[in-house]
Amino acid sequence: MSIPKTQKAVVFETNGGPLLYKDIPVPTPKSNEILINVKYSGVCHTDLHAWKGDWPLATKLPLVGGHEGAGVVVALGKDVKGWEIGDYAGVKWLNGSCLSCEYCQKSAESNCAEADLSGYTHDGSFQEYATADAIHAARIPKGTDLAEVSPILCAGITVYKALKTAGLEAGQWVAISGAAGGLGSLAVQYAKAMGYRVIAIDGGEEKGKFVKDLGAEYYVDFTKTKDVVKEIQTATNGGPHGVINVSVSEAAVNQSAQYVRPTGTVVLVGLPAGAKISAPIFDSVVKSINIRGSYVGNRADTAEAIDFFARGLIKCPIKIVGLSELQNIYELMEQGKILGRYVVDTSK
Ligand code: NAD
Ligand code: ZN
């Protein structure tokens, strides 16, 4: 396989600065890395946060973003074991961790203080060739549709892990707040596949039809309903047993701590910049609710999330455009106009 010296990528030099679609060198894998010819990459709202630089965690600069990259292994670092040229591999958010701290020892790799992040502290998948740590890169079964699987590499893993974090039982209600977005549209389907009843929250009629087609039993339109909390509690006969917050809205998160069922679990996933959760202490105590953060997933969660997809239980609702269109996708995302996930074809 011949690997070119240069490639197309989208790069920014300052947070919020121009998104430059240009030629850059193809990176050389370090001894522990594989080189992946990224065919497709999902565009996550996290990529928009990274570009804007609105989180209290600095990005590397200049940066190639992207962390839902699906492609083919084209080169191996000298110490790499267990990968072959031609294997299908995924660039995911967690690209490295120390593997020896107390968190890594217990498989909480994403909580490692030395976590290396694709498309944030390590150049990611908005390029044709990306390096990835051989231990952390995702294994994708050969023959998988690489465009369709790409959103699983962050959105899928994250919502699958968040649903596990909610600790629900089959037949219980789970609310997905932000259900029509990239994470939400997969959360609805993983929740169904795991045996839960889904109440979906998002804005507008089109999004309502979209999430019902994906399997939600009930839809709450936050732009229309007079009282989100009351409507959800009524529809679920006392509140959902779990809530997966994947909106980028502080108000939506705070409402979830009110409508959750007594003894239920509110899972925080979406990361609105500068936001705080505020829940009434009296109600939280008397209802004995749990509020838990959930941050991507570990390697086992990755393999399991991909397996749900490979068995046909999850369909990624994607729209494919060229990598050169990234700026337009960010604009649509900012305006909340995306149904499901945009995926970029790195060759265009
Ligand atoms: P997205 O833009 O595709 O989806 C967000 C959805 O929230 C949209 O459909 C929007 O209409 C909806 N929404 C907005 N306001 C709402 C409200 N008040 N109530 C209900 N829904 C509302 O974004 P995404 O790619 O799905 O990412 C969502 C968030 O999750 C981002 O902040 C991202 O950074 C974060 N994220 C976190 C993790 C993690 O590990 N915790 C992983 C990936 C992404
Ligand atoms: Zn992501």
UniProtKB/TrEMBL annotation:
GO terms for cellular component: cytoplasm. Signal peptide: none annotated. SUPFAM superfamilies: GroES-like, NAD(P)-binding Rossmann-fold domains. It is an enzyme of class 1 (oxidoreductase). GO terms for molecular function: alcohol dehydrogenase (NAD+) activity; zinc ion binding. It holds the Pfam family ADH_N. The keyword Cell division does not apply. It comes from the Eukaryota. Keywords: Metal-binding, NAD, Oxidoreductase, Zinc. InterPro entries: ADH-like_C (IPR013149), ADH-like_N (IPR013154), ADH_Zn_CS (IPR002328), ER (IPR020843), GroES-like_sf (IPR011032), NAD(P)-bd_dom_sf (IPR036291). Belongs to the zinc-containing alcohol dehydrogenase family. This is alcohol dehydrogenase. The lineage of its organism: Eukaryota, Fungi, Dikarya, Ascomycota, Saccharomycotina. The gene is ADH1.
